[in-house]
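Lecture 7 notes: from sequence to structure.

We start with a single chain of 192 residues. Read the sequence below before looking at the structure.
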Amino acid sequence: MRRKLARIAVMLAVLVVAAATLGAMPSQAPPEQESSSQPYGSDVFGGSVAVQEVTPPGGMTLFACIDDCGVYKSESVLTNHDGTFDGLTVRPLGPSLAGHTIRFFLANEHGHIEADEQVEFQGTAERFKLNLWFAGPVPFQPSLTTPTATPALPATGDKVVSAVPRWVLIMGVLTFLSGVALVLRARRREAT
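Now the structure, written as tokens:
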């Protein structure tokens, strides 16, 4: 009896300890509340843009990515007609990307190109002047006037078109008659 009571007491103690520690885990703060040794903020960029040493047309889209655009992509800003930009803000959810590479892209409706310049994400709530140079050409839509080989259809009422079915029927009948003649000739040879 004492053994049964001892076993029941041990099982109850194990259950109480298991129940008490079931939800226990280290505290996890959301990324925006992570503590760091320095205050966390946005890196804000402004400066000028040159594409193959020429000022690009105004109204092009400029954005930044940290490492890969799948990791972090900033909101876009538009370039001015004089090739300047301002207010390009890089602020991921937390300081965990500090020290990672920021890449800059210029885009229009036909694609995007990457700047030669890259900087490290600081996360120090500062404004930086940055002049971006793009070696590649601005993406453009291929010319619609490029000649392409398109089949020419005959004009409506063309006499050649109406003659085609007649010639196909004549050729079909001649082929059939030639086949019949060859079969008859082969049978005559076998008969002799």
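The domain at 37-134 is CATH 2.60.40.10 (Immunoglobulin-like). Keep this in mind for problem set 3.
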